[in-house]
Sequence to fold (228 residues):
Amino acid sequence: MVKNLPHAPIGVAKETMTNGVDLSQYLATLDISSNGYTPSATSSESGETEVGGPQVSQAKAPVGKYNKRNRVKRHRKAAEKAAKAAAEEAERKAKKEAEKAAKLEADKKIKEGSRSAAGNNTALYDNVIDYFDATYERLEDRLAAWQLLCVHVGIDPELSITKCKEALSKVFINIVDFVASQKGGPPFKRFESAGELRRYIRKGKVFPLGLAKDSPCLRCLLINVFFK
Fold:
C-alpha cells in the first residue's frame, strides 16, 4: 500500500521557500510510519539525546555506605584483639605475682619451721653435725671424705670431688635416719626422687639448712622442703 506523505506545515514551507532550503532536507528529519510521523532524535541543550521527550535520570546507590560498614567492623575487631591481649598480659602478671608471693611465704615458713625445729631438737641436730664433722670433716677439698660418703650412702666412689658431688646430688636420703643408721640404728631408706623424700620429711624429720652451711658433705645431701 502506498502511503501519502504528510504535508509540510505552511510556516515551514514558507521558510523553506524563503531560505532556499530543499524540501528533501526537511523530509529527512521526519520518521515516517504507518501512523504518521515522529520527529527524529535531537540533541538537547544539556548534550544528552532525547527520544520522545526528556530522559529520566537513574537513581544511584548511596556512596560510601559499604566502606563505612567495613571500617566499623575492622575497628571493632581491633578493639576486641587489644582487649584480649591486655587481659592476657594482666593474667600473666597476676600469675607471676602470685607465684612470687607463694615462694616468699614458703621461704618464710621454712625459716620459721627451722627455727622452731632447732629449738625443739637441738640435741638431735648437734648429734648429726658432730657425726659429719668427725667422719667427713669440714674440708671442701678433701677427696677421701667425699669418697667415703659415697660408700656410706651406697654408691660407688668417684675419682674426683666434682664427680662425687654429682653422684651424691642424685642420692635422696633423710639425714636424721642416715646418722641413726650409721650409729647402729635401723637401715636408712633411699628414696627414688626428691619429691618422695620431701613428702617423707614433712612428717617431722626436718634438718635446718642453716645448720649445715659449714659442713660441705652434710650440705650436699640436703634438699629444699616447702611447707604449705
Q: What stands out?
A: Residues 11-21, 32-52 have pLDDT under 50 and may be disordered. DSSP finds nine helices and six strands in the chain. The radius of gyration is 54 Å.
